[in-house]
Amino acid sequence: IIVTGAPTVLKRISITGRGIALNYILMALGGSVAVSALSVQNSANQLLNAVTLGVAATCMILAGVFYGENDEKELEKSLRVSIMTGVVLSAVLAIIVLVFATPLVGMFLKGNGEDVLLAKRSLCIYALSLPLALINNVLVSFYQATKNLKIPAILSVFRGFVFPVGFALAASAVIRTDAVWLSFVAAELFSLI
Question: What are the tens digits of pLDDT across the range 86-97?
């Protein structure tokens, strides 16, 4: 149980560290207004992540069954179908977020102040990471189900902390707060490479 659950524990620790680090970066770049925008993004993520987590959990169950039965054909098919279906669903979700960013932000912030505009920008950029995050989450679930635990453990740390914080630190001098918003897209993209 401890070994199998290690990637999940590492993911939670990495995400917590990322949140702290990105808050510090945003405070230095844009103050509490920028931190507020990240808070809106994090809150919206709780809803947006439902598709990703649902597809990944289903893939994990199916992959576990087919792995246990040594059914290579169905194992490969479950991964392929999970990624294809999930990418379509998450791309549709990303488009919905892009089209309805203003009312989504309005669920958390009121008015037309700088905080609302920055939160909308943050959410729109973040939406671009959804299909990539889906692929990565499905792959992590697949590897866990097939007892290949080293890859999910490494990905958990790099996706959750190293890539986003590293990107935000490296790019923030040039593109300011956009470095933080783009760090989510960059982390998912770097993880696929």
Answer: 999 999 999 999
